[in-house]
């Protein structure tokens, strides 16, 4: 059995976040000691590790809820889990494309060689979005 502090250290998740996951129903409320201290089992540790890793990969709370539900049915096909992962991958790729457009635009405006702010591409472009070459 683990205290909330030990669980926090082992999983690298802050105590308020663990409590939040409990409130959201992602982690079952743990047993309490005689001193009313939360006591987590090794299953709680595994579940919190699962949640933490899922969050690191950018899954939403609702996606994690669905993945946790799927994990409770090991006999089921994994197509629903694959579908969630494929959607997350699609979201990441769209974000990367947006960030690449943003990078190109920032590179373009930072290559300004004006002598004064009055002719500075950074200031002019920030003041007038139509001067951007890409939609970002």
Plain-language structure description:
This protein is mostly helical and 136 residues long. Strands 1-2 form a two-stranded antiparallel ribbon. A hairpin with a 5-residue loop joins strand 1 and strand 2. The mean pLDDT is 90.
Give descriptors for this structure.
single chain; 136 residues; mainly alpha; two-stranded antiparallel ribbon; 2 strands; elongated
Task: Give the structure's gist in a few sentences.
The protein is an all-alpha fold and 136 residues long.
Summarize the topology.
Elements: H1 4-11, H2 15-23, E1 31-32, E2 38-39, H3 42-56, H4 61-71, H5 79-110, H6 121-127
Antiparallel strand pairs: 1-2
Instruction: Tally the helices.
Output: 6
Distance between the termini: 49 Å
Kindly name the structural category.
Answer: mainly alpha
Q: What percent strand?
A: under 5%
Instruction: Estimate the global geometry from the Cα principal axes.
Output: elongated
Give, in order, the helices and strands. HHEEHHHH
Give the rounded overall mean pLDDT: 90
How would you sum up the major sheet?
A: 2 strands, antiparallel
Helical residue percent band: 55-70%
Report the count of strand segments. 2
Low-confidence stretches: none
Radius of gyration in whole Å, from Cα? 23 Å
Lateral arrangement of strands in the main beta sheet: 1-2
């Amino acid at each position: 059995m683990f205290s909330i502090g030990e669980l926090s250290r082992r999983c690298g998740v802050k105590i308020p976040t663990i409590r939040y996951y409990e409130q959201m129903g992602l982690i079952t409320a743990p047993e309490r000691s005689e001193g009313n201290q939360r006591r987590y089992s090794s299953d709680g540790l595994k579940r919190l590790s699962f949640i933490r890793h899922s969050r690191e990969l950018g899954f939403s709370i609702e996606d994690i809820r669905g993945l946790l539900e799927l994990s409770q049915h090991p006999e089921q096909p994994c197509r629903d889990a694959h579908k969630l992962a494929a959607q997350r991958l699609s979201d990441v790729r769209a974000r990367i494309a947006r960030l690449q457009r943003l990078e190109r635009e920032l590179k373009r405006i930072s290559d300004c060689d004006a002598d004064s702010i009055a002719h500075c591409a950074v200031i002019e472009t920030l003041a007038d979005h139509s001067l951007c070459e890409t939609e970002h």
